[in-house]
Design brief:
heterodimer, A: alpha/beta, Rossmann fold, 6-stranded mixed β-sheet, 4-stranded antiparallel β-sheet, 10 strands, globular, B: mainly alpha, MetI-like fold, 12 helices, 75% helix, 0% strand, flat
């Protein structure tokens, strides 16, 4: 295995309850590594703490115990070298598309900034919408703006918290394809949280499967399939079914899980 | 040349609403349509005409010789214009409101941003603000005279007091209720505290601050009349008191009231224009109107 860039060691998280002793254990002894340039997905049942884990990894939350390191350095605060893409409404509604994408480029010269913004607006397919405001765009276009904003800042790592979760099915399919295309051309490390197993198998190099609360990493599935991945290929279906089974779910609606 | 792939979801709401709007405007050309421009203008004018007629009739039937008819009021306004007093008084009132209100914005917005952001400062100052807030500016009149004497500063101070609280309170609430996601995104991009306030907190709160400013301007204009009843010799508030004291000229009293109402309407229309800027329009999306 390649060198880990993100290391999660013995991470536990408990939220205080209303009274003492009412604590909610969300994460319990989570261990994981993400290698440089890898696209790793975290899947798990809803409410299991996937988002909490990603928020800790990004430095927005402090874990109760354990450690997250990036390139060997412990993470305590968010850092522009690691940009977070939120599920919804992460773009600034008071800035237009152009200004949003340029948000992380305050230090650049005007000329550089212009070029970078144009490049990423083009990459996410929003050419012609530079002066539009987020509320004038569809949900999918807003997520494109946010992805472009993240890429434009040229981070080493991108954290994505169910970035396509609020989108309709067809838009989601298109966004996944575009994400893989962009990831291949930009060579970023991506840690991607989703509740959608199919999404994980379509985009990831590896899928980390979390248990219900208190969550830990239950299994890791390598998705060593060539890209582009076809949704009806035997390899794809096999990985998908494997994860379904590991998560204790039946493939037939109405049937009780065997696992 | 590179061929750009257009995402599937690009075909959205925008196109459909604009066709709907144009359909509506085509329809509104017809007089028969109750939503046409014609009816939208006729309705309020008709209502005003009805009101003025009833007012005139009521004065005549009651036989009052002090309370003016709409005609008396109109002649009163003409008289004020001819004497050059109307413009002078309007300017005096607007001047005082502008100063008091501008000071309130300059103090209230930064104060609200700081108190909304730093919870310890809020703990220390909020009770103080909540105690000062319900004290009517009119109760401050003796204090204003004591501090500022017979000058424009006294009414300006009262207007400031009346309008600073709605602005501060609206700003505090806006910061406290700000979406966490904007804050996290801003932190992620490594903004300094100054940048955070200017580029994110202020901008995220601006729609609600403008709503606070609108309410405050209404209050400021409301208070100018009371403020001008003390110690000054110009302004629409002075006009009303003076007309009453110097010869029971109720036509001029009501003329002053009408001018106050009209200018209040204009001020509100002006502030509403602020809501149309691109930078804040997002904050009003999804309203019924």
């Amino acid at each position: 295995m390649k060198d880990a860039t993100v290391s999660i060691r013995n991470l536990s998280m408990r939220f205080p309850g209303k009274r003492a002793g009412d604590e909610i254990a969300v994460l319990q002894n989570v261990n994981a590594d993400v290698s440089r340039g890898e696209l790793v997905c975290i899947v798990g049942p809803s409410g299991c703490g996937k988002s909490t884990l990603l928020n800790i990894v990004a430095g927005f939350l402090r874990a109760t115990s354990g450690e997250v390191t990036v390139e060997g350095q412990p993470v305590h605060y968010p850092d522009p070298r690691r940009i977070f893409v939120f599920q919804e409404n992460g773009v600034f509604p008071w800035l237009n598309v152009y200004e949003n994408v340029g948000f992380g480029l305050r230090q650049k010269t005007d000329n550089e900034r212009q070029q970078i913004i144009a490049r990423y607006i083009d990459m996410v397919g929003l050419g012609g919408f530079e002066t539009a405001y987020p509320h004038e765009l569809s949900g999918g276009m807003r997520q494109r703006v946010e992805i472009a904003r993240a890429l434009a800042a040229n981070p080493d790592i991108i954290y994505m918290d169910e970035p396509f979760g609020a989108l309709d099915f067809l838009t989601r399919l298109k966004m996944r394809t575009d994400l893989v295309r962009i990831w291949q051309s930009e060579k970023k490390t991506i840690l991607f949280v989703t509740h959608d197993i199919e999404e994980a198998v379509q985009v990831a190099d590896r899928v980390l499967i979390m248990t219900a609360r208190p969550a830990t990493i239950q299994d890791v599935v390598d998705v060593d399939l060539p890209r582009p991945r076809h949704l009806d290929s035997p390899g794809y279906l096999e990985k998908r079914d494997r994860i379904f089974q590991l998560m204790g779910m039946s493939l037939r609606v109405g049937e009780t899980a065997a696992a | 040349m590179k061929i750009k792939s257009v995402p599937a979801e690009l075909t959205t709401d925008q196109g459909s609403t604009s066709t709907l709007d144009s359909a509506r405007s085509r329809e509104s050309a017809r007089i028969g349509d109750p939503d046409s421009l014609f009816w939208r203008i006729v309705r309020p004018i008709g209502m005003a005409a009805l009101f003025l007629t009833l007012w005139g009739l009521a004065v005549r039937w009651s036989g009052s010789d002090l309370f003016p008819t709409p005609g008396n009021v109109a002649r009163g306004i003409v008289e004020l214009i001819q004497k050059g007093l109307l413009l002078k008084y309007i300017v005096a009132s607007v001047f005082r409101v502008s100063w008091g209100f501008a000071l309130a914005v300059l103090v209230g917005v930064p104060l609200g941003l700081v108190l909304g952001w730093y919870s310890r400062a809020f703990q220390a100052l909020n009770p103080f603000i909540q105690i000062l807030r319900p004290i009517s500016p009119i109760a401050w009149i003796p204090v204003a005279i004591l501090w500022f004497g017979v000058s424009d500063a006294a009414p300006i101070f009262l207007i400031f007091l009346a309008s600073v609280f709605p602005i501060t309170v609206a700003t505090i609430a806006a910061v406290q209720n700000m979406q966490l996601v904007y804050l996290r995104a801003a932190q992620n991009f490594g903004l300094s505290t100054g940048e955070l306030f200017r580029q994110v907190i202020l901008r995220a709160c601006l729609p609600q601050i403008i709503t606070g400013i609108r309410i405050a301007l209404g209050v400021a204009w409301l208070v100018v009349v009371a403020a001008e009843m003390i110690a000054v010799n110009s302004g629409l508030g002075y006009l009303i008191i003076d007309a009453r004291n110097a010869g029971k000229r109720y036509d001029l009293v009501v003329a002053g009231m009408v001018m106050i109402g009209l200018i209040g309407l204009i001020l509100d229309l002006l502030v509403r224009q602020l809501e149309k800027f691109d930078e804040v329009r997002w904050g009003y999306v999804g309203r019924r109107k």
